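User: Please predict the structure of the protein below. I'd like the answer in structure-token form so I can feed it into my own downstream comparison script.

Assistant: Understood. Taking the following sequence of 163 residues as input:
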Amino acid sequence: MKKSLTVLEDLQTEKKIIFNLEELHNFFISLGFKIGKPQNNPTELTLGLQKDFLFGYVIFFGFGQQSIDIWNDCSYRIPPLEKKDAKEMVAQPIASKILLDQYKNLTPPNVETLYKAIDVLSKLSTQQECIEKLLLEEIYTDNNDLYINNGSLELVSKGSSNG
């Protein structure tokens, strides 16, 4: 994992909070995710939860951060979400037409695992008001699990007026 996972920022005071890397790993593991990258040449994915000043929390999904940044190829939904919403999210990006099936030597993502991960973020949005942004930039799936290779978490203080 990249070093950025060890730093959280209090968005109200803009003060950086250094966390023990093991504690942050444990946070991701407590959500049901694994740390690292599977060995099966997986397809890179991006999933996140972000607080919007107008809509509240928004969940977003795409096939890697570059496809989101360069082509804006991602889907957005406002939680709470049901499984049908998760299915629509995964199928909406243009890249899904290619990458959900076998593409070259990449292992296609396990969509059931993605639906579960989206459900985790949907539930988290109703339980954790202190999260400003949870970005899972380099995530991968294998047959049963979702792996986080790079992620970040931004917190906001309880007294903040955001969201």
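That's the full token string. The two ends are 29 Å apart (CA to CA).
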